[in-house]
Amino acid sequence: MLIIFVLIVFLASVCSPVQTAINNKMTQYVQSPLLAAFVSFFVSTVLIACIIAFNGQSLSPFTEFIGRIPFWQWLGGVMGLVGVTLLVVIFPKLGGVQTVLIPMLGMLLTSFIIEMFGFFGYAHKIIEADDFIGFVCIVAALWLYATDTGKAVSHAWLYRFLGLVVGVAFALQPVMNSQLAVWYQSSTFASWLSFLISDILFILLIVILPVCRHNFKYILLSHSSNSEHRPWWVWTAGVCGAIYVISLTFFTARIGVQLVTIVGVIGQLAGGTMIDKYGLFHSSRKPIAARQYLALVLALAGTMIMNLFSVPVSGIVKFLSNINL
């Protein structure tokens, strides 16, 4: 049974870079990363609502604690909006692997800061030697992978900075969602609320921004402006996102934080590597050099050092593992 669980976590983690690649393709049709992200989030919201209804749960508790929940605990949807939209922006510039590695670095930095200073109600944690060594390995892996001799990307460091912002957003999102999950006693329901809030924010931005209002019609058109037929799979980014979020939250409580973290990193790096190497989902091919394979091994080693030789780095995931679906 453990092998089956590990395989599911691996496949769910592959869904993360796949979602970004599919969103990138949708952007070509709707001509806006914001609209592409909105489509992804809307599909995720509908899918998770169906899962909640299938489990016999009601969506009515939405209003039960509104007046009692601190405002910052509702910001998980904002973090999701920022993270997924920026991923669509940086993916075509940096490729699948860097789009995994750089946000990972931002997530680690944010997690360290949260635990060192005890923000958001988490207990203070001393960063130990294995945490530091693992972090250095991941930084070294990123440097080794990014400093290639291929075609230079204009403003590459700006896109890498945006990747760090993505990591910060994705580290804060589960902190905020986990607080909602405590109020509603369901991580699935909290995930649905987060997606719903993102949808509302997307709609507001679409209404406010003229370019989004003008391009909104492209969501429903079956052909792009150059008459290229839109493949059916561009609608599945939201399905990938929902699978990734729910699966990792669910299996953390079943097989442990360390194993989920390591398998999750393997899945994301494997997915990003395959997308770059073979140009999957109509993305640009980015050949992987031997040095870059070494960087992937180094990143995986850093993850293992932080998660196998001590109690998990992230109190965030520990907290989520104790919440019932």
Question: Overview of this structure, please?
Answer:
The chain is an all-alpha fold. It has one domain. Helix content is 72%, strand content 0%. It has helices at 2-30, 33-54, 76-117, 129-146, 156-184, 187-208, 210-215, 237-255, 257-278, 290-308, 315-321. α5 (156-184) packs parallel to α11 (315-321). The radius of gyration is 19 Å and the shape is globular. It starts with a helix and ends with a helix. The model is unreliable at 310-325 (pLDDT under 50).
What brief labels describe this structure?
mainly alpha, disordered C terminus
Question: Which overall shape is indicated by the principal axes computed on the Cα atoms?
Answer: globular
Distance between the termini: 20 Å
Query: Based on helices, strands and strand pairing, what is the structural class?
Result: mainly alpha
Could you tell me the mean pLDDT? 82
Oligomer: single chain
Computed over alpha carbons, the radius of gyration is: 19 Å
What string, H for helix and E for strand, traces the elements in order? HHHHHHHHHHH
Total number of domains: 1
